[in-house]
Amino acid sequence: MKTYLYPKLAEWAALTQRPVQKLDQLRTGVQQTFDLVQQNGDAALVELAAKFDKATLQSVWVTEEEVAAAIPQVSEELKEAIELAYNNIKRFHEAQREPVQQVETMAGVTCWRKSVGIQKVGLYIPGGSAPLFSTLLMLGIPAQIAGCREIILSTPPSAHGSINATILYTANRLGIKRILKAGGAQAIAAMAFGTETVPAVDKIFGPGNQYVTAAKQMVTQMGVAIDMPAGPSEVLVIADDTADANFVAADLLSQAEHGPDSQVVFVTNSENQLKNVQAAVADQVAKLPRQTVAEQALNNSIGIVVNTLDEALAFSNLYAPEHLILSVEAPEVLAEGVTQAGSVFMGHFSPESVGDYASGTNHTLPTNGYARNYSGVSLDSFVKKITFQQLTREGLERIGPAVETMAEAEGLHAHKNAVTIRLNKI
Amino acid sequence: MKTYLYPKLAEWAALTQRPVQKLDQLRTGVQQTFDLVQQNGDAALVELAAKFDKATLQSVWVTEEEVAAAIPQVSEELKEAIELAYNNIKRFHEAQREPVQQVETMAGVTCWRKSVGIQKVGLYIPGGSAPLFSTLLMLGIPAQIAGCREIILSTPPSAHGSINATILYTANRLGIKRILKAGGAQAIAAMAFGTETVPAVDKIFGPGNQYVTAAKQMVTQMGVAIDMPAGPSEVLVIADDTADANFVAADLLSQAEHGPDSQVVFVTNSENQLKNVQAAVADQVAKLPRQTVAEQALNNSIGIVVNTLDEALAFSNLYAPEHLILSVEAPEVLAEGVTQAGSVFMGHFSPESVGDYASGTNHTLPTNGYARNYSGVSLDSFVKKITFQQLTREGLERIGPAVETMAEAEGLHAHKNAVTIRLNKI
């Protein structure tokens, strides 16, 4: 951890820099994958699964038998934990439903908006060492609540051509029937453009490696929406002297273990606390199974001592972290001033991992400084908000002259005439 | 207007096609503009205003004197019309405020989300023949309500170096102080990257020509958010025999006058109504100042006769129009089934132009089929929704074991440890 004692304001911007993502150089390769999937459809997915996943697929789709066989493989303890998380996430996201509210903006002019589920969505869940069933919960639950008509899950197969049992269990719990055995850019291509068996979706969600990130970025220029731009995961912890250094160290390490490019930032108003946390990190990291990964991330991490907690918060707002942990005595006070962050964890008993799994908030959050201008995934991400308006005859009489005047001033006479022709008839 | 009588379902998809936008070929030129603005800042804006707007600028910023001089140039009638629109738009968008709602997802685990204004936003308003002060209202009002700290307006100067008086009047009414005299890709570059006097913004809103559209698309890959992807404006009108053919024709023409690439679609369950509307269009278009533009758009427009209003709605949902007008006897019934549209105008007395100017709904809406997967601009577009969570000691005891189990199952031991280390201490 590189440490900075009382950096000057002019130095702050440099400390908030993220590593530059070099996605441009991947575009040519990703475009080749796109072309292959567009030309050969499912056959391309089978070919690419053999190439990248070393899997021989009979079908690109998971069968009912595979799902049925997976269910008993998941321990009862894990099933109960998933159930608890499911209920909390569902409760929090159901509270995000926006009731239809009719607003009579003036007598006889009524406007409202209505949320309608995006019809077809694709959820991408990466494979690899950790089966991210928690991400499936985070995406599948709001998709369900939104009433999306078609939900496609795509995740890469193992070398045996199988999908992780907990992923299948979770998909089944969510009522997701269509599970595609595809990873990487080919999964994004299949969902964006469709194949003979995969429907083209309207919006694609989920994390992934740099090929997935580049592919998602590219399909946004081809009519498909995505959840948000992606970058390495991040945490910023603000701690004062009331924080337990071991708790803080554990929080920093839970971010560091994600990957060597994870961003870990520690800000405190206490030099002493910085020393304690550094010692606790050194102690705990040695015991982690993912020690090597965490150490690489820690090499790029920074620890900053500032004069006051207000300064710490100002730094955090400039950094715009994906996760912000307020390990301070009065987190409520500090939280009031948060202007740029994905999700905020308040006090000493709210570690990031509770939000990653089970508290109810969504863990798909803006990284890479995008907390400046994007929200995390929520029910909003799975709906379109359609506006409606209905005027009575009298309403049109009342509003019409203003519309005529404005249309005239903008030089749009046909716009004006659409009102005039009605007013003349009334 | 090309007409199609009872097209088969298999033919529908072809009828919903939009013209392909060829933005890729503009990228090189736009990148050159980006480079110039990044290298030379305001001097580049002055240079490009001379080149493209034929304007000699003393400063790239509008002065207080210019604003003061503009105010008396706007007629009292127009000021009153703007005031009426302002109040309606404000009322509708204020109703979109989301109150903070604390959800105790389980005992001791409290989650909520809070909307915080995006700190710095840029509003682009095109110049040209029509000064779109209505768009400035549609963007400026929600930006104000959201509490965006810095609002930059950019709009191209006339050859005299001036900005349209109504635009200045409206900006002043909205409390927008920083008005940049820049158009085209250079305006987007200035707001995205900043110059010595222009602050780099977090999100850019507003319509524009193909260079502006390409530039906005490009900056989304550079850390800046935009309102939504853009395409030519569209209307789809569904009418039955109760509709007045002259009203429908006026609505179709108010779309057609926008530009030669405007998309105009008419769907009816009555062959007779199609004939009447065609006759009314022919009659009205001859009287329009923008007759040539409207006629070009009409050449590409389509009129479709289907068997039932339900079929008409199904076609509309597939088309996903920016504006949908339901000129039918019972619009409430049809409106229930709308799944893909930007904004819906119900009944015979709700022409699109009331929504374009003054009813209260936003007129910045998804075009080009993006009503499948994007919402129109609303208060949501100007805020980030930050989630918060706070656990009590007991809350962590209750949720902790599930988090430990799930983290373990995902192979993320440091995530587990952040809980364990706390539970051990409690």
From TrEMBL, chains A, B:
InterPro entries: Ald_DH/histidinol_DH, Histidinol_DH_CS, Histidinol_DH_monofunct, Hstdl_DH. It catalyses: L-histidinol + 2 NAD(+) + H2O = L-histidine + 2 NADH + 3 H(+). NAD(+) binds at residues 124, 186, 209. Pathway: Amino-acid biosynthesis; L-histidine biosynthesis; L-histidine from 5-phospho-alpha-D-ribose 1-diphosphate: step 9/9. Zn(2+) binds at residues 255, 258, 356, 415. Substrate binds at residues 233, 255, 258, 323, 356, 410, 415. PROSITE patterns: HISOL_DEHYDROGENASE. GO terms for molecular function: histidinol dehydrogenase activity; NAD binding; zinc ion binding. The active site is at residues 322-323. Keywords: Amino-acid biosynthesis, Histidine biosynthesis, Metal-binding, NAD, Oxidoreductase, Zinc. Its EC number is 1.1.1.23. GO terms for biological process: L-histidine biosynthetic process. The keyword DNA repair does not apply. The keyword Ribosomal protein does not apply. GO terms for cellular component: cytosol. Binds 1 zinc ion per subunit. Its cofactor is Zn(2+). It comes from the Bacteria. Catalyzes the sequential NAD-dependent oxidations of L-histidinol to L-histidinaldehyde and then to L-histidine. NCBIfam families: hisD (TIGR00069). Belongs to the histidinol dehydrogenase family. This is Histidinol dehydrogenase. The lineage of its organism: Bacteria, Pseudomonadati, Bacteroidota, Cytophagia, Cytophagales.
